[in-house]
From TrEMBL:
NCBIfam families with a match to the protein in the record: AmmeMemoSam_B (TIGR04336)
InterPro entries: MEMO1_fam
Protein name: AmmeMemoRadiSam system protein B
Membership in a protein family: Belongs to the MEMO1 family.
Protein origin, superkingdom: Bacteria
Organism: Candidatus Woesebacteria bacterium RIFCSPLOWO2_01_FULL_37_19
Amino acid sequence: MFLLLVFTLYSILFFNNEPNSLVLSKDLVANSHPLYSFEEELFFNGVNSVNKQNLWKSDIYGGIVPHHTIASPLISGFFYNLSKQEVKTIIVAGPNHDNEGDADAATSRIPWETPFGLLSVDEDLIAEMIFETGVELKDDIISDEQSIAALVAYFKYYLPETNIVPIILKSGFDISNVEKLSEYLSQKINKEIVLIVSVDFSHYLSFDVAQKKDEITLSLIKDNNINGIYGLNSDYLDSPPSISLLIRTMEKAGADNPEVLAHSNSALFLEKPISSTTSYFIITYR
């Protein structure tokens, strides 16, 4: 009877009678990051758009995924494929958009609330990373950072048993810091511990101009040219440090052949011409 009562209460908190529909939970525990804004319809549109026959040919060590949730079909497709891999921990790095706080690189050791339950972190790996690299523990500034928080529902939905290691990087996180952190991460990366960077590309440009900027950015990524990437602004991408961290980590781990699986733009998802767009790539490393 007790178990039945618990299950019933869980169902009331999380689900209603509509398929693929959720009722957002209240705070589950005091010591967790609160639920980030969750757009249910947009999320499940992405879930339902996934082509489940078009699977990756092999496991990955790293990749690039958007955090702009208009691109939910791309995000869902990425994590659906990743869910077929035996992943225990996802290291996810992205921009500290507002350059908040005094840490150039920040992480958190508390879980995230999602509509699908608590998303746990890999506490041991985080503790070691802090000790070895100087990444700082800053729970307060990471809670509502879009580059991490916008993806936590996808992590929990597609990889419910997987832990994460969140890292947010200020724009001032320089190449010497990239080299140090990538040296550490490259020793941890394998098919069970993958590095994902959460990055959106060209911002606030027309579709045609964005396409041209994306060609330049992609060329630099394929050439592993982090000096060139550090010379780019938001016309091209929102986090040169995050992309550079991925490139260097993959190089050092011996998985430095990027494969572009998707390239798109918010104008295409909205199906209308707009003057200010955002562009996206899905790129994997094997």
